[in-house]
Structure formats: structure tokens, C-alpha cells
Design brief:
This protein is α+β, with helices and mostly antiparallel strands. It has two domains: 2-60 and 194-299, Beta-lactamase (3-Layer(aba) Sandwich), CATH 3.40.710; 63-192, Beta-lactamase, CATH 3.40.710. Helix content is 45%, strand content 13%. The chain is built from twelve helices and twelve strands. It has helices at residues 2-13, 63-75, 96-100, 111-122, 127-142, 151-159, 162-173, 181-192, 198-209, 224-237, 243-249, 286-299, and strands at 20-21, 37-42, 47-51, 57-58, 148-149, 194-196, 213-214, 219-220, 254-256, 261-266, 270-275, 278-279. Helix 5 crosses helix 9 (198-209). The model has no long low-confidence stretch (mean pLDDT 97). The structure holds 6-diazenyl-5-OXO-L-norleucine (DON). 6-diazenyl-5-OXO-L-norleucine (DON) binds at residues 60-61, 92-93, 111, 157, 164, 192, 256-258, 283-284. InterPro entries: Beta-lactam/transpept-like, Glutaminase. This is Glutaminase.
Length: 304
């Protein structure tokens, strides 16, 4: 496995087309696009990594997997009253479907859906309390107390929140959000601004590869059925309007973020995290998808 990760890292170093770093969040525009990292945590307790695998980066939408897990723990199937579970086929920040669909976002991974999920988690609590809960969950599943929010990234997103604020106000007008819009957004932006390395992310995703059990501690995080359902949502919706392309090329459930990270789950095998900040047209890491494609081809790990 180590040889494979080294080979992938060497192959990615040769790539000249590296995509474009997200700049609609100005704080992310400073990140050096030459970086690449990959880490694998296996269900039998092995850890492998290569490249910049210990460098923390903004996990952005990958955090939506963790907040979905928390929300399902709190509300169970009640969550689905306000969030759908169908692929959207539209960009991650699109508003169009909301108007025709009663303000109910198609799935928990598009921005509108993730905003509805965090509103559901808040349950009348202040943003600070909800954020403490999200952070302690992520630290628990990653088994790493060092994980933190990047306050600069969160502030940068809050200052440029027009698009997400539109989604939130629109949903609120349909009665889909219970809390004050700016409080929900502030919580959502901090959640997206969690900084983690590939090694930490792979560790955090391991419970989804092992029927819901956090392998290192042996403690159950979610039921086997819930782990399978979260994986199915990642497969169908984790890459927005490029989810079909990702399933075709990689064949594993995956969740991307505009920080350039992707968390992929190989059920029964392990969790793989990749990071390369340059994005493709749909906002997914260009080299991250390429690297995972190479990984899946060489390991033959696939859910199909
Ligand atoms: O709300 C946003 O636009 C960002 N905080 C998250 C978007 C994102 O990561 C989309 N992923 N590829």
C-alpha cells in the first residue's frame, strides 16, 4: 500500500494541469496549488500516507458528512422532513430547485441541504454550543484533540455570504429553518472552516468503512444500516453535478470540498483522504479525483 501511495504522489507531482484554487472565499485563494497529499486508514488498523498528508487544510463540504451523521443521531428519520435524499444534478450552491420544491433542499450535501442540516442540529442552542458539539464529534472520530476551526476562513466566508444567505433566507421563507439566518450561517461557515490533514480525515472516515464502528477505539458511532445510508448519499450526491462522473471513474462513495479535499470510503477496506487545492469546473479537486481513480484501479476496491 505504501508503494501505491508513493506512486500516486509521484504521478500527481508530474501533472501540469492542476485546476483552479477556489477564490469566492478569498481566504482560500492564498493556498499553494502545488500541494498534494494522500492518506489511507484501513479497517485492520493500518495507516499509510504520502505527500503533504499532515498539512491541515480547510475541509469545507467534507464537514457535511459529519454534520449529517450528528443530525441523524439527533433526529433519526425525522431529518428527512426538511432535507431530501436525491442527487440534484445542479451546482453545489444552486437555488433553482428550492423554488419548485417547497424550499426543501434535494440532499444534505448541497449548500442549501447542509444549511438545513445545521439548523436541525441547533435545536434552540447558540452557535457556540452547536460548534462545540460538532468539533468534539470530529475530534472523537479522528481521535485527535488538535483539530480546530480556522477562524480566518470562517470570517472570510461570513463576509462573502451573499449566495449562501440567499439560500438560507429562501428556505426560511418556506418555513424550513427554525433559527435566525445569520446564526445558522455563522455555524455553517465554522463547520466548513474545520482544518484537518489527510491523515486526520482518513481516520475520521474509518467508521463509514467498517459498518459504523470506530475501529481504533472499537466504539460504535452509528448502526451498520446508517453507515450504509450515509455512504449511499456520498455516492449519489457527494460531488454535486459531477457525482455520476465520480462514481463512474472511482466507484466509491466520496465527499469533496472546495478546499480541495476528498474523503472516499471503501466499505470493508478503509477510508482514503486526498488533498490538492486546484479544482475542476464543478468545484471538485482535479488531482484529487485523478488520484482516487488511480487508487481504485490499482486496488480494485469498488462498491460495484
Ligand atoms: O458554502 C460554501 O460554499 C462552502 N463553505 C462549501 C462549499 C463546498 O465545499 C463545495 N464543495 N465542493
Amino acid at each position: 500500500m505504501q508503494t501505491l501511495l508513493d506512486d500516486i504522489t509521484a504521478a500527481m507531482a508530474k501533472e501540469t494541469e492542476r485546476g483552479k484554487v477556489a477564490d469566492y472565499i478569498p481566504e482560500l485563494a492564498h493556498v499553494d496549488p502545488q500541494q498534494f497529499g494522500i492518506a489511507l486508514a484501513t479497517v485492520d488498523g493500518q495507516h499509510y500516507s504520502a505527500g503533504s498528508a499532515t498539512t491541515p487544510f480547510s475541509i469545507q463540504s467534507i464537514s457535511k458528512v459529519f454534520t449529517l451523521t450528528i443530525a441523524l443521531g439527533k433526529l433519526g428519520d425525522g431529518l428527512w422532513a426538511n432535507v431530501g435524499r436525491e442527487p440534484s444534478g445542479d451546482p453545489f450552491n444552486s437555488i433553482v430547485q428550492l423554488e419548485h420544491e417547497g424550499g426543501k433542499p434535494r440532499n444534505p450535501f448541497i449548500n442549501a441541504g447542509a444549511i438545513a442540516v445545521v439548523d436541525a442540529i441547533m435545536m434552540g442552542h447558540a452557535p457556540k454550543e452547536t460548534l462545540a458539539e460538532i468539533l468534539s464529534f470530529v475530534r472523537y472520530i479522528a481521535d485527535d484533540e488538535r483539530i480546530c476551526f480556522d477562524a480566518k476562513v470562517a470570517a472570510s466566508e461570513m463576509a462573502h455570504r451573499d449566495r449562501n444567505a440567499s439560500l438560507a433566507h429562501f428556505m426560511k421563507a418556506f418555513g424550513r429553518l427554525r433559527h435566525d439566518v445569520d446564526k445558522v450561517l455563522g455555524t455553517y461557515f465554522h463547520q466548513c472552516a474545520i482544518a484537518m490533514s489527510c491523515e486526520q480525515l482518513a481516520h475520521a472516515g474509518l467508521f463509514l468503512a467498517s459498518d459504523g464502528v470506530n475501529k481504533p477505539s472499537g466504539l460504535r458511532v452509528v448502526s451498520p444500516q446508517r453507515a450504509r445510508r450515509i455512504n449511499s448519499l456520498m455516492m449519489m450526491c457527494g460531488h454535486y453535478d459531477a457525482s455520476g462522473e465520480f462514481a463512474f471513474r472511482v466507484g466509491l462513495p466520496g465527499k469533496s470540498g472546495v478546499g480541495g479535499g476528498i474523503l472516499a470510503i471503501a466499505p470493508g477496506h478503509g477510508a482514503i483522504a486526498v488533498w490538492s487545492p486546484g479544482l475542476d469546473e464543478q468545484g471538485n479537486s482535479l488531482l484529487g479525483v485523478k488520484a482516487l481513480e488511480m487508487f481504485a484501479q490499482r486496488t480494485q476496491w469498488s462498491v460495484f
